[in-house]
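Work through what follows:
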Amino acid sequence: MQIALFQPDIPPNTGTIIRMAACLNITVNIIDPCGFAFGEKSFRRAGMDYIDQGMIRRHKSWDHFVATTGSCRIILLTTAATRLYTDISYRPDDIILLGRETAGVPEDVHRRADKRVIIPMAANRRSLNIAVATAMVTGEVLRQTGLFH
């Protein structure tokens, strides 16, 4: 499995996701443009020394990223989905895609995703923190696929 972040714009969240992924030996794809510089202090603080140990792939655009996915499915985590993230069968080569914290993903990215899933929340709530949401879905993928034993 892999994680992909579409134009992330909050450095501490990205750092936290990279730290988690490094600990679980998961590649993180960063789809530019980012809303911050990778050397930004708050980004490095959240990622600690794991940023240098993580497997990070930078992509100059959405099209560049899509061109590298091969036959992997792109599973978009979005509040616009109706299917629960626990109600699909994940594959070991799936890519979990998350949008910008402040704006999600554009419609063409929604259309390109092979599946769209949502984390259920209490009524009248907008969304979870992206790092928390990433961890929840990553845990489910690892549980189903047995990739981390």
Q: What stands out?
A: The chain has six helices and seven strands.
